[in-house]
Write a structure and sequence with these properties.
Elements lengths: L1 H11 L1 H10 L4 H11 L4 H13 L2 H15 L3 H17 L1 H16 L7 H10 L4 H31 L1
């Protein structure tokens, strides 16, 4: 599915495709940076475009996740989905629960599946971290994750070039 989305976006505009990939919950900047490097973007441009895409949904998610999920939970199907999502996030976000904003930075910064900005927003909502702390923590986490992914991507690209 992600490959189909990527191919569709690339045929449209390469820069926008990297931003959109960075904004998607499935790929975030962990997927956008390697794709941008593969497209031939400079490391700086790949990082900036992926960062912009990854940070764009954070403010709406922090403000809207709680009221939207509360409203949708009235529907049985969504209630089961949000119960599953909250429980999964709660289990994965022990750092956030224990260390709050600092834990949120670490949680978002670790470039593993289910630890990005989207899940960070859910964790911030679940653990009732105030907006300004949550936004700053998620932003710092995305910055750190971006440098880690960029470093790994450049290393991989250099190894493949040999």
């Amino acid at each position: 599915m992600l490959e189909e989305i990527t191919n569709s976006l690339i045929s449209f505009n390469k820069e926008i495709s990297v931003i959109v990939l960075g904004a998607l919950p499935v790929s975030e900047l962990r997927g956008a940076i390697p794709v941008a490097l593969a497209m031939g973007f400079s490391p700086f441009k790949a990082y900036i475009l992926a960062f912009i895409g990854n940070i764009m949904p954070v403010i709406p998610l922090l403000f809207l996740f709680q009221p939207v999920s509360k409203t949708l939970r009235r529907i049985k199907l969504f209630e089961k989905f949000f119960d599953w999502l909250f429980e999964r996030t709660r289990r994965k976000a022990a750092l956030v629960e224990k260390f709050e904003a600092f834990g949120l930075i670490l949680f978002v910064a670790i470039p593993l599946p289910v630890t990005g900005a989207w899940t960070g927003c859910i964790a911030a909502t679940l653990f009732k971290i105030r907006f300004r702390y949550a936004f700053l923590a998620i932003t710092l986490g995305v910055i750190i994750a971006g440098f880690i992914v960029l470093g790994l991507g450049m290393t991989g690209k250099a190894l493949l070039a040999r």
